[in-house]
Amino acid sequence: MSATAPALKIREPSYINAAYTAKSWLLTTDHKRIGLLYMVAITFFFFVGGLAATVVRLELLTPQGDLVLPETYNKLFTVHGVIMVFFFLIPSIPTTLGNFLVPIMIGARDMAFPRLNLASWYIFMVGALFAIVALIGGGVDTGWTFYTPYSTGFSNTQVIPMAIGILIAGFSSIFTGLNIIITVHKMRAPGMTWFRLPLFIWSMYATSLIMVLATPVLAMTLVLIAVERTFHVGIFDPALGGDPLLFQHLFWFYSHPAVYIMILPGMAVVSELITCFSRKPIFGYKFIAFSSIAIAVFGFLVWGHHMFVSGQSIYSSLIFSSISFAVAIPSAIKVFNWTATLYKGSISWDTPMLYALGFIGLFTIGGLTGLFLATLPVDVHVTDTYFVVAHFHYIMVGSAVLAYLGGIHFWWPKISGRMYPEWWGKVSAITIFLGFNLTFFPQFIAGYQGMPRRYYAYAPEYQVMNVLSTAGASILAIGYVLPLIYLIWSMREGEVASDNPWGATGLEWQTESPPPTFNFAETPIVTAEPYQYNPDGTFTPQTTLSVRQIKKEVAA
Amino acid sequence: MLGLPIMPDSASTLSGSVDTLFLVLVLLALLFAVPVAGLIIYFAVKYRRGAAVNRSNAPIENFKLEVTWMVIPLILSMGVFGWGARLYFDMFTTPKDGMDIYVLGRQWMWEFKYPTGQRELNVLHVPVGRNVRLTLISEDVIHSFYVPAFRIKHDVLPGRYTTAWFQATKPGTYHLFCAEYCGTEHSGMLGSVIVLEQKDYQAWLDQNRMNTGGVIAENTSPGTQTAVTAPTQTMAQAGAQTFQHLGCYVCHRPDGKGAGPSLVGVYGKPVQLANQQVVLADTNYIRDSIIDPNAQIVADYPPIMPTYAEQISEDDLLKLVEYIKSLGSGTEAPPEMINPTGGMPQPGGSSGNQGSGAQDSGAQGSTNGDSGGSDSSGNGNSGTQGSGGQ
Ligand SMILES: [Cu+2]
Ligand SMILES: [Cu+2]
User: What is the DSSP string of A123-135?
Assistant: First the structure.
């Protein structure tokens, strides 16, 4: 049954070969090229943020502060947090794989607003420029959370340029979100009903909803910070008549949902990989689809769980705690369904699958420790300690980055037209998994033992855990550098990829690798449910027809 | 708890319960994670590509199963939530009895003030087996008061009192950390809590009693640099002086005949405001009345009280609060080293603060031991000049 639709493929130049000039890249409105522009930018930021983390981990090798000055340390963890959150994780999957895949997966020629898409990238880069100016101008030492009144009245660092940078980058995320939502609503190919959408699309859709609804609150909060800092208008600083908890409410109203901006796309990728490499339709399609939406909705109602010791009322804490438990259920649903998908599958251990399985492991640990934090009295003890640091790294780095890398490997043949080297892929996936756990698992223990976060010197009894952590980080670093090297290498030297090397069902695999500029030679007609995989390796692609074919047949 | 080497010291009445809950969570997490991880590995191996196994009739959905794995975790998690909520309530409900200590956080040190007048920097001495009630305030940014061995943490906010409490169960010296990032020396904002046996605590107090004068360094637990400023007066006495000094007495007379209400007996009682609201006169209310008097106007009084925001320090505010608290404490014994204020006054039924003020004014004299230095010359506070201290 592994029929493909030859009519969809006319060997015209791929989107990469369409033109070679710098201008053709910088002024492109092709969603695939824009996805690559993003990929280059965020890869750069990932390594900048990673460099800061490296120095942080080295400083923490010994209890005394001996490598850098405390001011420098504070700037380093701030840079690490700001860059990784706002300039890597939030844009990561939506702007790269999302940009590249959303139109192709639904059978469209491009995003609904191709020029807005390009503008989003430029806006993002302008935001990034401000962030870089803030760094070169001396850095920022407030932590990525910008808590007031420290950020508005006390810090002598480049808070305003950084806030402006994040604000501008936020607009890029709003535009990307809008573009994806509208694309999914308006651009689906004939036959692509909502329940034929790949789960990747469902998750991207949920993510986009959050981007559009939550980011304006962040923008507003950052403006208020700048106003208070510049004009001394009392908003957050009690010395000026403001309320510091108001800041925390506003900040977390964005930043908790932002966690889901980072993790939902990861779940999106993993849902695709698990089913493809198990050669089985995904278990519980509708439950996975709706759990994404549930996460997006409930994610807006739990921000107060960051404030259990902040002085908010006990009753608010109780409500936020209970909803936080509830929001775990849709995540658990996904884990169970992925696991059930493996049952009676025909599972291959290719690199993307290793990443996907690793994701489930790390996400399970990250999610379960989230429940520890939702438990009020336990949170009182471990909030603002390394326990929290470990928890959110399991989600935001462990899970999100693993999914991102898994996705990059899976779609690399489509993106670049080449295969990555499988052996190196496996090595890096395993290195990252082991290095990650060695880095962050000890931090749970240090945290329960009481080591506060953002400490550049610490009590000697925490050293063992910190040494383990730093050792893990060096392994992790190798794991992250490897793909950078071999993926770049593979662009020239890798084995040429076939159009559908994984035997996958999605529309993106029914066109060429790499696809032509407008993705399909003819508008495809979607004729099948997603994920029609059989254990014997055969499958039913989502399309075997194009509009023109039908017209011809009718005419004949 | 269970002597696990990775568990931190457990030294308060609540720390054991937190650990128990934590370990139950660990068990539940394992109960969930081990089967999932086990199944993933088992399936990934058993159904690896090429293995000759039965793959027929592979299910792709199962409504009952979905509901099961939605409902069971939901029930379990709601159970944990309820358990946690109860314990959280205990943690955050300040007990009625116990000793009060005021905590001032500032970049980057801790200051502890005992109502009896002692003042310590970065070291807090407390007796074992007594409730210690903390009133926390920051002079600058947000800090967080964290004693891992007690499993308590509470943010210390500028502009607003927060409260926390603990009861230590085991003598020893424990870390005190600032847990909220507060600037350059955040990780240097350390202290220790020294828990003493009751009799050692008494001895420590005796060494730092009133009128011994001066700063006594390093006199208790070896190895801790502790600078205790021994008092010449209680906080309430110092507050009475401030009350004089800032001219509060002109309007607030115990007989209620000034331009403002009598403050006698106000603390802990409901206050009828001009906007019909009734609020409880707690420490934050008193603080706000001084810093931002026009935000909440007492019924039947004109909004004429000037704001003191510009001229008063957090330190003086705490003294004033302690002073005003002491006015309401009835016939408590003169300041002993511990707990001069006694329990919370019973909330009075009515809001007629003028009337009750007049009634209680007689009690003032015995409330505040006067050590001579705090002579209040003002007429409005004759009470504070009552019989000598101890
Ligand atoms: Cu959150
Ligand atoms: Cu601090």
Answer: HHHHHHHHHHHHH
